[in-house]
Amino acid sequence: MAWRKQMRERVLAEARALTAEGGWDRVRVADLALRAEVSRPSIYKEFGDRAGIGQALVRRETEAFLLGLAAVLDEHRDDVAAALEAAVAHALAEAGANPFIGAVLTAVRGGTDALLPFLTSRPDPVFTSAWHLLAQWLGEVVPDAAEERRVEAADLAVRLAVSHMLLPSTLTAGAPELVSRAACAVLGVARDS
Q1: Into how many domains does the chain fold?
Q2: To 5 degrees, how large is the angle CA 165–CA 167–CA 169?
Q3: Is residue 25 part of a domain?
Q4: Are 43 and 18 in contact (CB under 8 A)?
Q5: Would you tell me the crossing angle of helices 147-166 and 175-187 to the nearest 10 degrees?
Q6: Backbone torsions φ then ψ of 192, nearest 5 degrees
């Protein structure tokens, strides 16, 4: 069991590295096997197929991203507007600094979206996970806001942040403040600035 876990982590680490280097479209199981120093049959047995590797990789990256996002939100529990602004800034910074996310976004902007379905519409997607995290957090820190307002604010914030990741514009630098302002308006929460 320990070997299997180590093998799985090696394969996912190499899949992440290969994706960051050349995009998911160029990741081949044969290359993964060579770099992770495991057999192709072992990879297929563990993940099923290449799509299974993609799903596991996105799940792993999503968990790490959400842990960071939760930490940022919790740093600002006493100021909803500042927390939302910091969370969006964190998400945009991760999109710019994380080579895996960068490879996915670059592929999307370049017309290929091989990993995008894993990020948006397959089981445990990033969007839905981030939405649930934010909606739950808002329930804890703004319990007086109506539930439908918290749900709407979480949806709005996540959609706008993802939009700025996928389609950066001249407004992207101010996106954290814009998203925070919009979500606070939906929540009916006053901003200090």
Answers
A1: 1
A2: 100
A3: no
A4: no
A5: 160
A6: -70, -30
Tokens 């800034």 sit on residue: 89
Calculated CA dihedral for residues 164, 168, 174, 177, nearest 10 degrees: 0
- Cβ burial of 134 (10 Å; 0-12, 13-18, 19+) is buried
Question: How far is residue 33 CA from its own chain's centroid?
Answer: 26
Determine, yes or no, domain membership for 92: yes
Domain span holding position 94 = 58-187
pLDDT per position as a tens digit, 1-23: 788 899 999 999 999 999 888 87
If one counts every other C-beta atom within 10 angstroms of the C-beta of residue 19, the result is 25
Residue 48 lies in a domain: no
User: Block means of pLDDT (10 residues each) for the chain, length 193 residues?
Assistant: 90 91 86 95 94 87 90 95 96 83 62 58 66 95 95 94 79 87 93 61
Note the pTM of the prediction, 2 decimals: 0.80
- List, in sequence order, the alpha helices (H) in 76-174: 80-97, 99-109, 116-120, 126-141, 147-166
In a domain, residue 35? The reply is no
